[in-house]
Write a structure and sequence with these properties.
Chain lengths: 278, 289
Amino acid sequence: MISSPATRDRPLTRWTAVILAVLLLTVFLALPLAAVFTEALRRGWETALAAYADPDAQSAIMLTLLVAAIAVPVNTLGGIAAAWCVAKYEFPGKRLLVALIELPFSVSPVISGMVFVLVFGAQGWLGPWLQERGVQIIFALPGLVLATVFVTFPFVARTLIPLMQEQGRTEEEAAATLGASGWQSFRLVTLPNVKWALLTGVLLCNARAMGEFGAVSVVSGHIRGETNTMPLYIEILYNEYQFAAAFAVAALLALLALVTLFAKTLLERFSGRRREIA
Amino acid sequence: MSVALPLPRQPGASLWRRRRDALPGFGLALGITLTWLSLIVLVPLSALVLRPWELGVTGILQVLSDPRVLAALRLSFGSALLAALVNLPLGLLVAWVLVRLRFPGRRVLDAMVDLPFALPTAVAGLALTALFAPNGWLGAPLKAVGVQVAYTPLGVFVAMMFVGLPFTVRTVEPVLRDLGTEAEEAAATLGASRAQALLRVVLPALAPALLTGFGLAFARSVGEYGSVIFIAGNRPLVSEIAPLVIVQRLEGFDYAGAAVIGLAMLLLAFVVLFAVGLLQAWLRPERRA
């Protein structure tokens, strides 16, 4: 930003501000990240690689991928549907709907997991009924997926809604006038218009799905090799004083975060707009 | 196939006349949305609202008067408020530097701000603990001057600052960018000193955004679990946060008790956010005048 002399602070003030900001972000954000990678490699590459080869680690990685592979498509579909209603139509209760879609972001992760325990747990509303039929939701994969879907619920919808609202509905109406079916106009007009935003939303949804800790911690039951996702496995390793292994697995997730941030920056450059992560 | 020209749209027209809309798919999309929303969010959350009453009012009060619960709620809300407050000037500083100043490495700094958003909370917790542990990079020098961060309430505060900082930066930043420098220039032309221009022109314009940032940072930190429990040490009555007490109650199959604490947390958080909203509304007319 070019500023006139009247609003330009003295170089000393400016440089102090820059140095303070850099110092703050370095101490607070860069150092923790550096600590993860340093601790992971403290005992050398072999130890870190051995940590990944452990069968429990492998099952944690597979489970994390599986949970994300279910939760992300569900929320992508739901997010697109929600954005479509909210952005393209007027209807009573629209503001309430938007507020409800955003609700999971203002709920503690632990509470997000707990609500499913209250419904499906051993003493939950449906617990006894499920138990009679031998269906396990809490302390099993369905619970992990439900909790993950809950916490990642708003990501796709909230990246799409502002953009689709801005774009309005004239292009879709034109397509309809030219004889396009609803599905054709969605596939050929709407989707190409929002593709970068959609990708960003999916990316952020995925990062959170793979990294979620509090909500899945409550519903997991921490059964080794069965219901531990990567973040939960990190906690177990840490509590067992296997620090090198804990940090090695944490480094994988930190890499995922860095790749996500990098891809988000790239996508923003493609689409020419900024987006909030959370 | 011929398609009728779309009728002029009437905002707020009846939901049931939507069939005549030129754009198809409203019913299907709304159906998917409501099903998705109800199954995942509304029905489970209703359990949180309904289950505490199994205990009756006395039972609820009993849970809430448990010293351990009270201490945990005090710690969670106290640190979250304090961390959000401290993040205000820090977030403003970072936003100011990113918007107003050009220097090498600005883009890297900009990307770094989002790190707490993207970093899984368990990783953040582990990282902060390693950093602030008595033998850590920051913990060791701090220990030398007699400050212990890890395994104390101070650690809870530090973790909450970490997760909250990007919210303050990212809410203030766009407002500061849109604000431009014209108003400041006008103030300077009219004889205001730099400090006067900043305090009486820029700060009031940023106040609503700062408050929003405060609210978001608070809401995120107060329920934060993963980043906090590693560094907190989790000593009952001292450094135990409210979400951890909920987890323990659930592990002891005290569902109703856990729900009481969860509902209390949600309601208290809404009270704080409502107060922030009131403050914002109170500040607004002054800004327009």
